[in-house]
Amino acid sequence: MVRAYRRKSLTTAGIVIAVITGIIHSATDSSVNLALLIGFFITGTVFTKVKADVKRSLTVHIDDKGSEFHETRNHIQVLANSVVASILIIIQLAIDRQEYPRYWQVTQVGIVAQYAAVTADTWSSELGILSKTTPRLITTLKPCPKGTNGGVSELGLRVALFGGFFVGGIASFFSPVSLIPHNGSPGMGIPSLGITEWTVLDRAQFIFFTGVVGLFGSLLDSLLGALFQKSLVNREGKIIEVEGGYRFKEASLNKVGDVKAFSGLDILSNNQVNFAMAISTTILTMIAWWTLF
């Protein structure tokens, strides 16, 4: 957190929320949740800096006054990418995992799913924009400017899949017991109740599962962005992005110059799209896990 403050990668409010989030993620007797949070934060920070100068040249970044800005993530962005997991951890702490092992386990899968989705989406956004091919709008498959809400590329989708794999790898390494049930009913490290230590097959299945979850989350984010998040372009055809993931304000746009709508309705901000994607993917994954396993 000190490093985040010094490098201005997080605002003061963002750091406060990140610390609270870290405390919640440390509240369980396993290090897996904290490892997921740290893995997401570190890789997101690193990939944000990859060819940052090139990425800045591809889009126009403005603050609420219409001036160019240096990206510093705020508390809303931190919450949008972690609050679903924090809520599930709090719920999990109230569950007696010996008496209700299946309910405990499905919340853990939900926590992993949330990080698979937001990690995949972050990787896809930060690295996919560097694709040498022109992205296509997910709703029409027509070419669109780089940085368009709802724009997808082969590189972005591939990176999203590996982001999900990465989270599955963290979960299978740090979780003390397998998240793949055995013998019908899951338990907590008790073979007769269904949960045992990880096998090679368990790890492979779970990592594949989280890869699919991550890819799905990234695609859902693109779909929501294409439909409900407005994308504007300037005279040069560059996408305009607003500081902090907020919606556009007329006052700020007036200082940018001539802009025109490219796609999407002005209903959701980038933060709201991220949150909607995270909670939807998490719930759907928990339902899928409950049904499949």
From TrEMBL:
- Is-annotated flag, keyword Heme? no
UniProt main location, coarse: membrane
**Keywords in UniProt for this one?**
Membrane, Transmembrane, Transmembrane helix
Q: How does it sit in the membrane?
A: Multi-pass membrane protein
- List where the protein spans the membrane: 76-95, 155-174, 206-228, 273-292
Q: Which InterPro entries match?
A: DUF92_TMEM19 (IPR002794)
State the PANTHER family in the record. TRANSMEMBRANE PROTEIN 19 (PTHR13353:SF5)
State the name under which the record lists this protein: DUF92 domain-containing protein
Its taxonomic path starts at: Eukaryota, Fungi, Dikarya, Ascomycota, Saccharomycotina
